[in-house]
Amino acid sequence: LQRIARSLVLVNFDMPYSISGVSERHYYGTGLIVDAERGLVIVDRNTVPEAIGDVRLTFAASVDVPGRVEFIHPVHNIAVVSYDPAAIGDTPVTAARLNTDEPRPGAELRSVGLRRDSTLVSQPVQVANITALRYPLSKSLRFRETNLEAISLVTPPRGADGVLIDSRSRVVALWSSFAFDIGNDTREDSRGVPAELVQEAIEFARSGEPVYSLEAELATLPVARARSFGLPDSWAERLAAHDPGRRSVLAVERTVAGTAAEQLLRSGDLLLAVDGKPVTRFREVERAVRGRTMINLTVWRDSDELQISLPTTPLDGDGVRRILVWSGAVLQEPYREVAAQWRVQPEGVYVAFFTFGSPASRADLGAGSRIVAVDGINVSNLDDFMARVAERADTPSVRLTLRGWNNAEGVVTVKPDSFYWPTHEIVYEGEWQRREP
Length: 437
Fold this sequence. Notes:
This protein is of the alpha+beta class.
């Protein structure tokens, strides 16, 4: 355990603003050191949910240093933060070794993690299965994991996230916390994120390359059920031979609004192959898409085999790097989860939060809506909104056209109060800065 203990660090994260559907302000969890020379640490997005915030890392329960968010995975429950290696002095740390081989059900592993007080906890565990995660759509519009086959354990550890290691202290998976909504409640679930996906996320963080995405949420169906949808025997046999252990088919469940996938794919499409190669797993699709601006899909739809050339969507790992606080409302650009979960077009300015007692709250400028027009003039982004509001600085009120997640429109009138509720931006330009317009 001593070897892996030198690769674990306690990560604390404080969010000064509620954005991207995240209302809680303080988080903590176990981070894994993956590059000791550059000071890179990988955590889950239930520890570091967004880029805006203060990171503190505690090493060996004795050294506390500031950190910085380097990468927020746009699709999966992974974030990368960094620290200055010189700041920890001679504190012994070691970059973790990864074992990217997929564990089999029944495999004997060990879970290791840190509690909130930096106490190291460990127990032997056994892999129960590796299955696709399926969480409900989020009413709060927060990040929701999709397209991931994660590791479940027979007797999972309680009270600590961390890693799953093999007998040689190599990391087989991150034991990560997943936040999801059920009704109006936010709950947590712990599963293992395979090391192969962790390795890819590290490469993205180091290189800065975009994450090319199909922008379709997929589900897995048994081959027998796919046959009931008209899948011919030739394809059923080909897919079964490709992955005898699974005998499953990928199906399109929903697409992200505003992308090529929305135009070219339909819910219920069976995804059979990418560039002529059969695919039956999420990671096969992601590996095929990586670095590709265009891919060719073989799809079964309405008893017909189709060939579709699909432009992929490049996503960055920056997270939210700019917000606007206006009349007590926190505004941001529309973000991917809104388009991915509820198929809301990425237009206008998203209302992330409002402070009670502010002009925004008195006008009922509700969180979760989008401002699409100011006094009848359309706005498409934060710059548009700021320009329109600045033009009306001398008027006592501003009329805003709002559009909800269901595209229902409404109009509210806000009476700005620049003395008690001044307008300002929070922008990342190498460091976080507050700017007055």
